Amino acid sequence: MRIADAGDCHSSFGMAKRDMDPRADVIVVGLGAMGSATADALVRTGRRVLGIDRWSPPHSMGSSHGRTRIIREAYFESPAYVPIVRRALELWLELEQSAGRTLYTRTQGLTVGPEDGMLVRGALSSAVAFQVPHQILSADEVHRQFPGLLPLESMIGVLDERAGVLFAEQGIAALLERAESNGAVIRRDEAVVAWEPCTDGGVLVRTTAGDYRAPQLVLACGAWMPQMLPEIAPVLSVVRQPIYWFDAASHPEQYAAPECPVTLWEHAPNRVFYTLPDFGDGLKAAVHYEGQAVDPDRADRHTTPNEDAEVSGLLGRFMPHANGHLRASAVCFYTNTPDLHFVLDRHPKHETGVVVVSACSGHGFKFAPAIGETVADLLAGQVPRYDLSMFRMARFAP
Asked: Domain 109-161+237-336: which CATH class?
């Protein structure tokens, strides 16, 4: 991938391909959670939008698949996320109503770990700062309220009353359907190979099918952001993350939605695994972070016996009746920053024309509709509705 300096939009690429400009105001590259939400938000403000994806979203090639996602309010990563996730839930519910199908189910959420551990301290910090409805439970209280969960005696739980589950592929499909119904043009199965700024202040995007021009550009490329934005590639780490679905060995009712909460477990210092309840296709479980760094175009998309055994062992220790038959597994990508916060910023060299909305460091899906709104604000030159300082690209400057 080569990003040229400002030029005439042709010479740096060599001979121009067929011009396929659909008269867009904004081109959105990548239509996972962030890109699809951005396309939807932009077109609802009256902007003409062209969205482009290498595959046909929703698909299983990037970071936005896996059937379900956690949405939680007692946010251990930082209290600064709480206003954004609250707005995101409002927007998911609005989308659910307009789409006429279920996109969210409230299950409650349980963060479990040592009282002085990263998860519990962080969740309580957010809960207190923003008056998030919550309970603090001892290990015995966790087990009594949720018999399928078996914390160590040294652990406590923070019960997030409004946490729940989002249905990932359904959400992306609904966002794109609404965007298209409002006039967005979506190009599927079309790979972006390069982009460059033009002397008129706009951008040119080159794909495997042709060239597109627009005044503004959104890069929402997920695991392919290092290729599309080489200037921040050195600080981005793309890792493969195995995910699993298990049938319960016994007492399946203990792990079924909505009786079972979503869970996050700090099973060792700063080491986390999570689960989502069974909606008829198995209890979902995975290790959070700790993935192997990969090239997303060459990654092994099959899990290994050692990876399978690690997750099975964690279930056996903390949710013993859930550790039954391994029903399915998959691999997705996290694109991580050094501090594990997002990148959401105007491009420092093209502030009025290009917005970068990646990477999400493995916890971004739930925020997508609120981030889409924020990108629309940035492109319109408006003051963002949230404090975005911890998402700025400048924090990576040497």
From this structure: alpha beta
